[in-house]
Structure formats: C-alpha cells, structure tokens
Amino acid sequence: MNFLIPSMSHLRGAAVLALCASMLLSACVAPSGGPMSGGGLRLDGSKTVQVAVLLPLTATNERVQELALFAEQAARMAMADLKGRVEMQMQVYDTAGLEPQAAEMAQLAVQEGAQVIVGPLFAGAANAAGLAVAGSGVSVLSLSNNVEIAGGNVYVLGHTFQNTAEHLAAYAYEQGKTRALLVHANTVPGQAGRDALERALEEQGSFVAGVEGYEFTQQDLVDAMSRVAERNEVIDADIVFLTADYDGGLPLIAQLLPEAGVDPQLVQYAGLAQWDALPSAFHLPAIQGGWFAMPSPVRSEQFNARFQTVYGRAPHPLAAIAYDGVAAVGASVATGNRDALNRRGLTLSSGFQGAAGIFRLRDDGTVERGLAVATIEGNKVVVLSPAPGSFSNIGF
User: Fold this and answer.
1) pLDDT value at residue 143
2) In DSSP terms, which residues pair with 249 in a beta bridge?
3) Domain Leucine-binding protein: where (predicted)?
4) What is the C-alpha to C-alpha distance for residues 342 and 345, in angstroms, rounded to an integer?
5) Calpha distance 130→204 (Å, rounded)
6) How far apart are CA 299 and CA 306, in angstroms?
7) pLDDT on residue 31
8) Which CATH number fits domain 161-294+374-385: 3.40.50.20, 1.10.1790.10, 3.40.50.2300, 3.20.20.30?
C-alpha cells in the first residue's frame, strides 16, 4: 500500500512518530472479564518477560530470508518502543524454514526461559513449534494466516480469508446486496477463500446464488469466464466475489469477465485480495469501483513512516504482523495482569491497537482485525467504510 504522508518539520515528525509508537503499544482498554483462563504462564511479578521470536533467517529461498528480516526488524522496533514501559527481553531463533528445526528451536527457547513465542512465519513450522511446546504452557503467536493450525496454544496473527470475508459480507449486506456469485480457483487458497465467503454470507443472511470454480491454468481461467457469465445470466447476481490475487490471475479475470458480459455497471465486483497492491492494474474494468478490505490506512501510514525512519526502507506488510505479535505481548503484560500470557490475557475482548489497526485474538486461536472497506476511483484508493477504532460497536 502506498499513501502520501503529509510533509512536516523534523521535530514535529519526531513527536508524531513517538505518539504513534505509544498508541501502537497499548491494549484498547483495560481488561475486564473475558474468556476463562486457559493454557499459558502466569507472571510472578519478579522477572523480566522473556520473548522468543522464531523466524526462517537462513531459509534456502532468498525471498523467505528477506521476509524473515523484515519480521525481525519489526519485532526489534516493537521491543525498542516498549523500553521503559515493560521489562521484556527478546531472543531470535532461526528455524531455517524447516518444520523439525522449528520444533527444536521452540523447545530450546522454552528451555532457555521463553515465556511466549512470536512466530514462526509459515503454518507448518508454527504447527510444529506449537506441538513441541504444548505441554509447557507457552503460547505461540504465529505470523501465519492459516486458520487450520489455530487452537490450543497456537494463535494466528496474519490476515485471514475469514476475517476479510466477514468485513466484505457485512458491508455488502448493508448496501443491499443479496445475490452473490463466487468465483474461485480450484486451489487450496481459492477453495479456502470460497469457504470463508460462503460462511460469512450465510452469517449475514445473504443468499449465495452461485459458485464457479476453475482449474489454475491460463486456458481454463479464460474458458471459465464464459461459464461464469452464463451462470450470471441465469441467477442475476448483484455482486460477484473474486478470491484471486494479483499473482493468481486477478488481472486476467478483471479484464475478461466484464468482456464476457458481467458488466461492472450492473454487477458489483468485490475481492478478498488487497486490490490496492498493484496500481498499474487500477484501470481494469472490474478493479475500477470494486470493493476490497484493507488495514487501516491511517495506522498503516504511521507504521510505514516509522519503519522507514528506523531502517531506511519501506516495510513489507508482514512487518506489521510481526510488530503486532511483540507489541500485543507488551501491552498485555503492561496491564499488570498475572494472566497476561494466559488465554485470558491474550484474548481480551477489547483487543489491542496494532500497527495496521485494531485486532484481537479469539479463544479458538484465530484473529479478528478491524479493516476498512475501500474501492478504486481513477488511480486512487478511496475508503468507503473506515476501519473501526475499537471493538465496542462491532463483532462478527
């Protein structure tokens, strides 16, 4: 996401960034009630909280190494922001992108005194780490968005299909959309996106009018657009949801589906991916005016500006997730609650103020994030429904 940041003097900028850091490192409100205490450690008030961060720093894939570096830098930035407010120490452990090593490093971290684990990055490694320390009472705040691994002592912090689908379905329902056509690839992500949309639309009371899948090849995708258009003529959908992202055929779909007869002037387009990620595609017929969910632009601007100031480069979106993991632990510990690292402390109904907006961990290990709903007008991202500032008036 790229947003313009207003120019300001150096001193004023420093003050604004300092204020942003303070806001990011806080629970939304002081804890009151909440889920019953479950697995996790109780604080005795006498020791520094030990945080282990597990990342694939030496993975064979260089791109994965780069993602790990972004995550490590964000975690260290969160620790620096916590200094003077919470007594915490952080140790980074290298999983090398391997599940057995992730399990080994999780066990080593606990042996060396870790009271909570942030990471690993990918679902398989996070699941392995969680299982390895399941009997220790240590929670694992994974950076993954795969809800299949959530539960027990494992939480997922990444943006999930279900959370995005819930925001889009709620907004679509508010706008009077009741006949949905879902278009997805017959891949694991495509089918997961389809399932999330079906659940979200059912919860809103919307009727899913039709579902069309396609094999993940260019030819079948092209052929599928005619099938989708024919199906739409029969069911007369008023909204079509696309699960594809820009790496998964979205530009081709956004060009061909309107040409096949699903007119964006008559049928609302919406998608689970962040359609603001590729400005060069903003001109495509289905992208123009389409709806998508995104993290709070205001919070994201603030975090991106701070990361740029500290490290001299723009962060990958994953950095905000890693920051949130460490910051949530710090915010929970700062309340003085002895159950800060238990399920009770980590699943506050009030949630936390995160790097890209509010979020809260659910008792089942999944995450709920406060998202904005936006559209593309011309070459600009326009927010239609701002991200909520608290969970007091929303809930899915």
Assistant:
1) 96
2) none
3) 48-377
4) 5
5) 33
6) 11
7) 35
8) 3.40.50.2300
